[in-house]
Amino acid sequence: MARFSYPAARRSDVVEDLFGFPVSDPYRWLEDGDDARVRDWAAAQDRLFGAYREGRPETRSWASLLDQVSSFGVSEPPMARGPVMFLAEQLRGDEQRRLLVVDAEGNRRVVVDPAVIDPSGHTGLYTWWPSREGERVAVQMEVAEQPGSDITVLDVRTGEAVDGPLPRARNTSLAWLPGGDAFYYVSRVPDEELAPGDMRLQRRVRLHRIGTPWQADAVVFGGEDAPDHYYGLTVSGDGRYLAITAMAGPASPNDVYVAELVDPEAPGFVKIVDGRATGARVLPRFLPDGNLLLVTDYRAPCGRICTARLHDTDPAAWRTLVAEDPQAPLDECLVLDDPALPRPLLLVARARHGTSTLTLHDLDAGRLLTGLPLPGAGVVSSLRTNVPHGRHAWFSYCDVATPPTIYRYDAISGTTEQETGATTAGHTAEIRSRSVRYPAADGTEITLFLFTSAEEHEGPRPTLLYGYGSFGMPMRPWFFPLAAAWVGAGGLYAVACVRGGGEEGQHWHDAGRGPYKHRAISDFNDAATWLIDTDRTTRDQLAIYGQSAGGLLVTAAAMRRPDLYAAVIAEGPLCDMVRYEKFGLGCTWTDEFGSASRREELRWLLEYSPYHNVTPGVPYPAFLLTGAVTDLQTGEAHVTKMCAALQHATSGDRPILMRREPDTAHAASPASKERALAADILAFAGKYTGLSPEETTMSLHETVVESH
């Protein structure tokens, strides 16, 4: 195979002395996306990928297969507020979701349709918060990864805007006060009030009253002493109390503050949980009796549920309601307290060996009452109930071959029924799901999900191995069209539950973050080795794929063991771990990865940073690095710098390509763009592992779960 001719990328002589470490950065100039030289180089890379794709007619076949297995319809449970329910729906052919309201008679009406707002499809419905009475809804749209994300308040009956936009509310939390005339939310300090070049989050919690200008919104919490904190907001059902969680990173231990709302504009907060002291996450909810329900991993790495008096500041005073199960990490819980119930109930979702269980408990004592039957060995998510008082519990269920399906549990009758859900254009392939355990280098057993067609197949086959391994995010057997298409074409799809994720609870996360991030990378390479050694695949048939922090995982794994892989696909990855804090939201992730501003932590980062471990003369696997042209999460420089470094270094004849996408976000792009990206990923992985899409007879699936 002829070597590719790549656009020339100047290598500069930038070398920094950081705590005695000489750190080379020859492609730092690519960080300036406004520089004409960078734009010209990136445009040449775009043309190179375009020419490569034109020569791959099988991409169209992959796109057709993806179309058959992609889901559409309703994929998450409703929000029931007063007499109405709010549903998000995305029909086949829609670029974005639309927001519907369903009244007590079952009549459906569109409240927000992004296609009407922006026919181009680049404006999406990001999130929404109905008032408790269901008469108003605060809506946040997202426009092609623009930083605005304003909040607009709509009258549910007319669909007309009654307030807003409230600016700079990206990644906000919002909590309505009873009556629907005011809410608390989180927004960034106006740029004119910040020091020049201040790129920190600088968020504040504010109170907004409907009909008043946003400039008058009172700041009730947050300050310059916490420039990168994330805040979560909860108001008690009677509107008397506000709870705020404050954390320095998306997976960090958090503080909890509670205030009585005698004056909603000036609440007096009591710090009831000190995250630094507990080293744990604590999520509070207000109970009808005035006490708190606490979901926490304090002294319970797999999670437990406690109750506490409103101003208990000593964790020793917390009463355990539902104890930790060391074999089944806690996912979420829900209180059902309708007055028609004989007693208030607590619905608890856990994950045992990657698959979900639902159990019902007495809320007062925590006593187990029963387990709820589920459709299969899959994943339950997004527990929701009526507000203000819960009788029904809605949840989403899916498995590797079943798109999200919405079920409703009735706590009075004790019955569970399918209510709505997503569907596919065709039937998904019959898929066999196995959960196996493989040994890491240090002897730790790691879970590996294997998804194959149900047909018997002897010998190795083309394999796509996926992983994430950061922020305590667990891998589960979710429905994923890309995986269904790969398996439908005859491939093996595998998911490695490496350390750094949350599959085994908080201790699993701790074992793969900070100074131990190298374990996640080793675990992933050990998964690849196991797949090869057990004759499930070969090095020439193995591709790896990761998104965001998973992109870091797969690129770092390939730098360490390039000989293991035929192809590597990294979507929106982190690659330059010395300067990741300077891009996107990287400055808020130091609790996960460490900071280059501290000598010991810089040493950790340099050990595995993909960009800094590219070695000239190595025959690297085929690489596809994908990302948004403007990525406000990770920053686009990771893709450009890593691409240039690999193109310069590789001695092999497999391509190093960059696929950039304009007018999209880090995630949740228009549906057609998501499918086009998935088709390109499948075509790339298939090309270098020997898998081609074929006419596959789609049959109703049967998911079989086995443990080995």
UniProtKB/TrEMBL annotation:
UniProt keyword Hydrolase present: yes
Signal peptide: none
Keyword Transit peptide: no
Catalytically driven reaction(s): Hydrolysis of Pro-|-Xaa >> Ala-|-Xaa in oligopeptides
Domain Peptidase S9 prolyl oligopeptidase catalytic: from-to ranges: 483-690
PANTHER family referenced in this protein's UniProt entry, alphabetically: PROLYL ENDOPEPTIDASE
Name recorded for this polypeptide: prolyl oligopeptidase
Lineage: Bacteria, Bacillati, Actinomycetota, Actinomycetes, Streptosporangiales
